[in-house]
Design goal:
The complex is a heterodimer of chains A (363) and B (218). By secondary structure, chain A is of the alpha/beta class. Chain A contains 16 helices and nine strands. Chain A has three domains: 51-227, Rossmann fold, CATH 3.40.50.700; 238-304, Cytochrome-c3 Hydrogenase, Chain A, domain 2 (Irregular); 319-352. The termini of chain A are far apart. The chains are: A alpha/beta (363), B mainly alpha (218). Chains A and B meet through helix 15 of A and helix 1, helix 2, helix 5 and helix 9 of B. The complex binds iron/sulfur cluster (2 copies).
């Protein structure tokens, strides 16, 4: 397999103008909150860099993450990602199929051992030996372990790969886990979201290519540049939250006035993602702008956190039944102990020594 | 981890705290009634019931027929309790919780009012604690339980205020801490003098009823 060409050569081949390339670099610099001068530095670095081999493994997933990336309104900056990398295996996007496809993966793994980037979407089922999801007769578990061994770094794309996602929701019948639950020896970067914002996937890869290292991560392994703040921190409806003005239904006066969606179940206050700033569909908007609260899709366990329409302060479990049962227990205990104590009282009254007037007179 | 902790305090943690609170409170209150009182053989000169209920109501207000020191305690105590009830019952987020559990709610108070109530309440609690330290009589009377109950009543107010203003920590951390602090309060309340949140009304009723029976004007 030949050495990959540089990004500059590739872009020329593809007829991408230098102008749009610079625009892309400027957008990346802004997104990652880098200082103003860094766009040209990114451009210089990216132009020279050899396009890395990327193996993309899709496990227990819905292809939403790939859709997010490829179906973004074209032509977009995000689509430049496919020029930045050499995508050597992606079973949804590649032309080859069957043995030829698997061969391509094995070739890339051998050729670029220790250097390729491994992108994973979907969770990995590990129950019953991992039989619940297989590709070409091999379990996801097996394939991940093999591919991870030769990877320079792993990017877990989407909440399933990052945290287990929907397959991991209770009762988790397939024993689905995240990449980071299985692989401990490689740097892993989590780009969570259901799906993640395509510009964030591109931004993280651009960062990796520019600086040759993973960006700073938060305690969940997510790049701080994109997941450092909550939706609520940057939400344009925030002034209404602070004033206590809430929409009570999806079609009331408050909803029409664009008031805060907290009472309709918005999870923005506890969700770290870049939706409110980077936005979706080429910057067109994000869910809250469309009048729907945040579901918390970029956080672990968001499927198990109760209804999407239950406000954050509401209990996530049935407390009423617990309280009723407790009241019965308390009442039975009180009646039992009370009866015993009453008995003691009566007994004490009966058995006490009675003092008569004669006693007091001292005889 | 943070999400899991929040989920726990909103779910299992809340169930445990509620169960302990309800068991404890039902037990302690019902136990008082179970012990019963000896029947008075005297002839009634007035009604127990009206005396009882009137006293329950009237003692919710401050009388200024006290010493300066007594006045401070009573007034600061009143401010704390009022602030506590206003924030507890009229903050929109609390009404969301009540509506989710009971199926009904009521209109919230404006955030400005809640803020003032919370600050007054926190201030009054701090003043009361300082007074407890300075006043020799109060200090002598105070034991570990007094400081424990003060702390556990103070924490929900403090974390709640921090949460509203997002002071110090992230929203999710503050929300988890706030709920956890309330759960701690619920668990400890029935077994400490915080049980007065219910027993105080029984005590008032009893005092009032005794006076009412004797025909004392209330
Ligand atoms: S809509 Fe959601 S994210 Fe926006 S201010 Fe309200 S609670 Fe926060
Ligand atoms: S607004 Fe919330 S639920 Fe919607 S995509 Fe963004 S993080 Fe996910």
């Amino acid at each position: 397999m030949k050495e990959h060409e540089t990004l500059e050569q590739r872009l020329q081949e593809q007829g991408v103008s230098r102008r749009s390339f610079l625009k892309f670099c400027a957008a990346m610099a802004t997104m990652m909150a880098l200082p103003p001068g860094s766009a040209s530095a990114i451009a210089a670095a990216l132009a020279k860099v050899k396009r890395p081999s990327v193996i993309w493994l899709s496990f227990q997933e819905c292809t939403g993450c790939t859709e997010s990336l490829t179906r973004s309104h074209s032509p977009t900056l995000e689509s430049l990602i496919f020029d930045m990398i050499s995508l050597d295996y992606h079973h949804t996007l590649q032309a080859a199929s069957g043995f030829a496809a698997e061969q391509a993966r094995e070739d890339a793994m051998k050729e670029f051992h220790g250097k390729y980037l491994l992108l994973v979407d979907g969770s990995i089922p590990i129950k019953d030996g991992g039989v619940y999801s297989t590709i070409a007769g091999r379990t996801n578990l097996d394939m991940l372990q093999e591919a991870a061994a030769g990877a320079a770094a792993i990017v877990a794309v989407g909440s399933c790969a990052a945290f287990g996602g929907l397959p991991n929701a209770q009762p988790n019948p397939t024993g689905a886990v995240a990449v980071s639950d299985l692989i401990k020896s490689k740097p892993i970067i989590n780009i969570s979201g259901c799906p993640p914002i395509p510009a964030v996937i591109t931004g993280v890869l651009a960062h990796y290519l520019t600086f040759g290292a993973l960006p700073a991560l938060d305690d969940q392994g997510r790049p701080k540049a994109f997941y450092g703040e909550t939706i609520h921190d940057r939400c344009y409806r925030r002034p209404f939250y602070d004033q206590g003005k809430f929409a009570k239904t999806f079609d009331d006066e408050g909803a029409r006035n664009g008031w805060c969606l907290y009472e309709l179940g918005c999870k923005g206050p506890t969700t770290h993602n870049a939706c409110a700033t980077t936005k979706w569909n080429g910057g067109a908007g994000f869910p809250i702008e469309a009048g729907h609260g945040c579901l918390g899709c970029s956080e672990p366990k968001f499927w198990d956190a109760g209804s999407f329409y239950t406000p954050l302060p509401a209990p996530a479990a049935d407390v009423t039944s617990a309280a009723k049962a407790a009241a019965v227990v308390g009442a039975v205990a009180a009646v039992t102990v009370g009866a015993i104590d009453r008995g003691k009282k009566t007994l004490a009254q009966q058995s006490r020594e009675k003092i008569t007037v004669e006693d007091l007179k001292g005889n | 981890m943070e999400q899991e902790m929040l989920l726990w305090v909103r779910g299992t943690g809340l169930q445990i705290a509620t169960a302990v609170f309800v068991i404890g409170m039902v037990y302690r209150m019902l136990h008082i009634f179970m012990l019963g009182r000896k029947k008075s053989l005297a002839e009634a000169r007035g009604s127990e019931w009206s005396g009882g209920f009137r006293t329950m109501w009237k003692r919710s207000f401050v009388t200024t027929k006290l010493s300066a020191r007594g006045n401070f305690t009573v007034i600061a105590g009143l401010i704390f309790h009022l602030g506590f009830f206003v924030t507890f019952l009229f903050l929109s987020q609390h009404i969301d919780l009540i509506r989710a559990v009971l199926g009904f709610g009521w209109p919230a108070m404006p955030r400005g009012v809640i803020d003032i109530a919370a600050v007054l309440s926190i201030g009054a609690m701090i003043a009361l604690l300082v007074h407890r330290f300075i006043d020799p009589v109060k200090r002598m009377l105070s034991d570990f339980q007094d400081y424990l109950t003060w702390t556990l009543s103070f924490l929900p107010l403090l974390t709640g205020f921090m949460l509203l203003r997002e002071i110090g920590f992230e929203y999710i951390t503050l929300l988890t801490l706030h709920i956890a602090s309330v759960e701690l309060l619920l668990v400890i309340a029935p077994f400490t003098k915080l049980a007065h949140m219910f027993s105080t009304f029984i005590a008032r009723w009893y005092n009032g009823a005794v006076n009412g029976f004797k025909g004392i004007e209330i």
